[in-house]
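Long-time lurker. I teach an intro course on protein structure, and each term I like to show students one example going from raw sequence to a predicted 3D structure in token notation. This year I'd like something fresh instead of my usual example. Would anyone be willing to generate the tokens for the chain below so I can use it in lecture? Attribution to the forum is fine with me.
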Amino acid sequence: MLFNSLSFLFFLPIVFTIYWMVNKKGLQLQNSLLLLASYYFYACWNWKFLFLLLFSTGLDYYTGIQMFESKSKTIKKTWFWISICINLGFLTVFKYYNFFVSSFSEALSSFGFHVDFAILKVILPIGISFYTFHGLSYVIDIYKNRIEPERNVVTYSLFVSYFPLLVAGPIERATHLLPQIKKRRAFNYNQAKDGLYQIVWGLFKKVVIADSCALYANEIFDHYDKMNSLTLVLGAIYFTFQIYGDFSGYSDIALGTSKLFGIDLLRNFNFPYFSRDIAEFWRRWHISLSSWFRDYLYVPLGGSRGGMRMKIRNTFIIFIVSGFWHGANWTFIFWGALNAIYFLPLLITNNNRNNIDIVAKGKYLPSATDFFKIIFTFSLTTFAWIFFRSKTITLAFHYIKRIFSFNFEGKVQYLSIERYSVELLLLVFGFIIVEWFSREKEHPFFGKLTQVKLLFVVCLILILGVFSKASNFIYFQF
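-- Reply from a regular --
Happy to contribute to a lecture. Here you go:
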């Protein structure tokens, strides 16, 4: 079930209405309703993978209790590693097995050995990377004595399977979400209204910005060998806004939907394209994943406590692992390594935490220095997205090579034969302006003229959504 589908348009009001109707009958009933709704939401994709979700949930629920009650450190550690290995084992089999087998086979072929390994013909369970990380953080926190296990199976199951975040995040922590699930919730009109506003803004990002940019990005990347340099640059920029509108749009819908049920989720995006360096970008992009790798991988590896060599090693590890988390392809690994290289000068010069505050806070325009820093960081990010979008590293380099052929003959291609051309450029430019003046808020529907802005956005969603050929969210494949 897609957030931008008619089925979800019917599903959400029904669950919302019943949820608040049973509010006076107890928290357990509310949570049970949300859990059943979440399982139905997930089963709409492929009901068979619901059993994998249930097994993963049961494993971590039981493991948490066994670790907490273990009187022996050995037994506690045994249960810990059982959970870690099984969870990562499922993730490896479903998501990475074919990649490892194919890569190993190609490596042997380069030395003259031809071996045919069996390839698994299975569909990647949707959301497996996200709910696996929910469970892992829970088990790790119990093992580190940061939290106690949740005894109520419905409460814990809802923490893992809560439908707004189940498929594509944000990646929640037990310390943040579980207390909210365990607490009695009362309907808050202002919170619900704000949630609806955020849902609309998320739909705008997805349907109007991401799906419109996708039309051009797909055409340009799929036919890059026929494009001139300017068109290729534009294709990379379009994908930059496509993936941002797509993923941050999903996160906005998830956060807004959860507010309707009186639960606040972790913010996942904070206007990342206004970052002044790559370190600030990663503090503002996919925040829940970046902070997860920081807390559960970077810090246990030693973090920044050791010398410079350890810092550099740990930085490369988390960026490469983060890239690999996105998918079983060398392009994602290269993308992660490239971002690590971007990050290194800041790390070495100890300038990686220079830009903590919002850029030009309280001002209409940035300083000239900040403006050029934003443009430079955006350019680095756009360049890296070429590898993320390309099917292979070789194709990415071919794409980049054609950009730097400096072939500017003729006008920008594809803009004259699609639904609209100049209009899309104006739309993206207008989106940047709206984001800029909203950068100190969670979303633009605050302040004056809220109703006018809301009506305008809804009209654009309806008009452009009718013609949209894109529907799935990019991060569903992760």
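Some talking points for your students: DSSP finds 18 helices and no strands in the chain. Residues 73-110 form the longest helix (38 residues).
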